[in-house]
Design brief:
299 residues, mainly alpha
């Protein structure tokens, strides 16, 4: 297992290097002046000369690529053009939001996908099975961004001003806020890694609001997460439903399964003719037969 993981990690190195090279090449192949594309009307010759020197764009392409690799290796992703802040800082600030959405999407996928797979497996070839598989195939086929737009259009516009209307964007409604954990617990002066952990957990609104008893903000944050969680969790939901159905059909079709305990007869033998205390299948499949019950299944 360790050797397998090590080999897989080694394989990812050239893949990552190839992705970095393609991104770098595409950025350099785009026509136009980077300075004027970024600054627009504010770009003057003097400003563009400073911009080019500051970002190393006056160096040869191989030197620029080496500088690019060095910045990536040290975690320096540059500054955001839109926000004029380090990209790494922006990613760290938004990481709690990503984690929260991923957790809710996975909860939705598991709690809905597993029951759908069980129903589909137990009722094989029934309308419920066909409907579940059609839904699963649609869930895998529809891109997340398309489904998100459809859900936002339906629940935010078509169903607006109804009890089932849902917010299409944002994390909290206007005027609603979640008090950070450090403030609730009186740890405003805490510094270091522990403060970073508290701030990270505070960014997961549904978690921090729940453990601090802020049920109003928790309900509002959860309401804002419904549509994004459904859009993001539909694909894994469909995959989980299909895997659950296949696994259940495999177990139900096995001749060695024992889902029911044997019933003993007055003669001391079990219902299937096996000694007391053993278990037997309620049905079995003979060779060449798809689902015909044997005599042991009818005893």
């Amino acid at each position: 297992m360790t050797r397998f993981l090590f080999r897989r990690l080694l394989v990812t190195i050239p893949v990552l290097f190839g992705i970095v090279f393609i991104v770098f090449a595409l950025a350099r192949l785009i026509p136009g002046d980077p300075c004027r594309a970024v600054l627009g009307e504010r770009a003057t010759d003097a400003i563009c000369d400073d911009f080019t020197a500051r970002y190393g764009l006056d160096e040869p392409i191989p030197v620029q690529f080496v500088i690019y690799l060095g910045q990536l290796a040290t975690g320096d992703l540059g500054d955001s053009i839109k926000h004029s802040r380090p990209v790494t800082t922006l990613l760290v600030e938004r990481l709690p939001t990503t984690v929260e959405l991923a957790l809710w999407a996975m909860i939705f996928a598991v709690t809905v996908g597993v029951p759908l797979g069980l129903i589909s497996g137990y009722r094989r070839n029934s309308p419920a099975d066909v409907g579940t598989m059609v839904f699963a195939n649609l869930g895998v086929s529809i891109p997340v961004f398309v489904l998100g737009l459809l859900l936002a259009f339906l629940f935010a516009l078509v169903l607006k001003d109804t009890p089932v209307a849902l917010p299409p964007s944002g994390r909290l409604s206007s005027g609603v806020s979640v008090v950070p954990l450090a403030v609730v617990w009186g740890l405003e002066d805490l510094q270091g890694p522990l403060r970073g952990i508290l701030d990270f957990l505070s960014g997961i609104y549904t978690f921090s609001a729940l453990i601090t008893g802020q049920f109003g903000p928790w309900a509002d944050a959860a309401r804002h997460l419904i549509l994004p969680a459904i859009a993001l969790g539909t694909i894994p939901l469909a995959i989980i439903a299909r895997i659950t159905r296949s696994s259940l059909l495999e177990v139900l079709g096995s001749t060695t399964c024992a889902p029911h305990a044997p019933r003993a007869s007055p003669s001391g033998r079990s219902c299937c003719g096996t000694p007391p205390g053993t278990r037997c299948c309620p049905w079995s499949r003979s060779s060449g037969s798809s689902s015909a019950p044997s005599s042991r299944a009818r005893c």
